[in-house]
Amino acid sequence: MAYNLEQVQVQLIEDNRNMRALVKAKLVALGMKSVRDYANGEQALEAIEKFTPDLIITDWMMAPVDGLEFTKFIRSDIDSPDIFTPIILMTGHTEKWRIITARDAGVNELLAKPISAKTLCDRILAVIEKPRPFVRTKSFFGPCRRRVNWKEYMGPERRFKAERTNELMNFDADSTEQDVADVERLLESL
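-> structure tokens emitted (190 positions)
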């Protein structure tokens, strides 16, 4: 599906000048005319005070502020211009623990280096066409970390559908032990 991406404001953060130029050229080729690029997260944080991006594409490993620290700022800091801004994290390190760490920081999509125009486009389309709802828990705010909601999962962190939540919150009926247990489970899942 084709999109007009001319008005999308992109913040590109990458410490390697050649990689930054390459990614910027690919974004421009995809039709994005407003791509502002920065050599590290610190520069991007300073710029974000005057510029609110629609999309952030950041490298992970940079100094003095890396991509994860930048993501955590966007997702949780009171000075963040938009906590819902989609973030695509680029990295050359794709070990499982790193992917989980990125997901838990609030990244929307991960882009493994070396990148191609197709993989970059695929991640941008994923943000546009398959946006995940945002979730707030005691220790996390960001896009839902589960890409699939397994109906058969019955563990303590089971998600409830809206109609089931309404059933659980109906206190007009006689309270039974099961009702109380259901409400407690619902509250624990928030």
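The chain has a mean pLDDT of 84.
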